[in-house]
């Protein structure tokens, strides 16, 4: 990444995610909600050198081991199922160990496109960020997926995302709705895992 992209990454990871995203920082009420099957979310706004970003963190318990959940984020075709309102998701290239995923999202009347660069940084962490050199209908986006073991062989998925909207009218009218859609991803990941498991034949696992 260029220095322009390293700056917001460093700010977010150093000042926000390491402290805010730790599972140990969850309150007793949030842990109880996770045990009940709820998605726990925390929203925030951040001013970065590239502009103002909206985003949040979301946690969910998934009834599958971490390796199985991580395999989803390493399969570009899965991105069409785990990001909301996705009309198309396909691999658009590779560079070293990174890969690029083209995504088109929207509804019947309007849609937008962008491409994210995806990188597995550790066995439990995958990061993604928008490639500014390819066509994009949003200002910027970036985030991460992290998997941690939970009791009974399950996985605690932590998802973080930030989005920069450049266009004033869209930002004014739809900012909170877009943030809400973005934070649906953990629930979609859980549903995708459950659907894949339900589709397996007995004895396949």
What does this protein look like?
The chain is of the alpha+beta class and 205 residues long. It contains 7 helices and 8 strands; from the N terminus they run H-H-H-E-E-H-H-E-E-E-E-E-E-H-H. Strands 1-2-8-7-6-5-4-3 form an 8-stranded antiparallel beta sheet, with helices on both faces. A hairpin with a 4-residue loop joins strand 4 and strand 5. The radius of gyration is 17 Å and the shape is globular. The relative contact order is 0.17. Residues 1-11, 168-173 and 201-205 have low confidence and may be disordered.
Number of helices: 7
In N-to-C order, the SSE pattern is HHHEEHHEEEEEEHH
Please state the structural category: alpha+beta
Shape: globular
SSE layout:
Blueprint: H1 3-15, H2 17-20, H3 28-35, E1 40-48, E2 51-62, H4 66-73, H5 79-82, E3 86-95, E4 98-106, E5 111-122, E6 125-130, E7 140-149, E8 155-164, H6 168-182, H7 185-198
Antiparallel strand pairs: 1-2, 2-8, 3-4, 4-5, 5-6, 6-7, 7-8
Notable traits:
205 residues, alpha+beta, eight-stranded antiparallel beta sheet, 8 strands, 38% strand, disordered C terminus
At a glance:
The chain has helices at residues 3-15, 17-20, 28-35, 66-73, 79-82, 168-182, 185-198, and strands at 40-48, 51-62, 86-95, 98-106, 111-122, 125-130, 140-149, 155-164. With 205 residues, the protein is of the alpha+beta class.
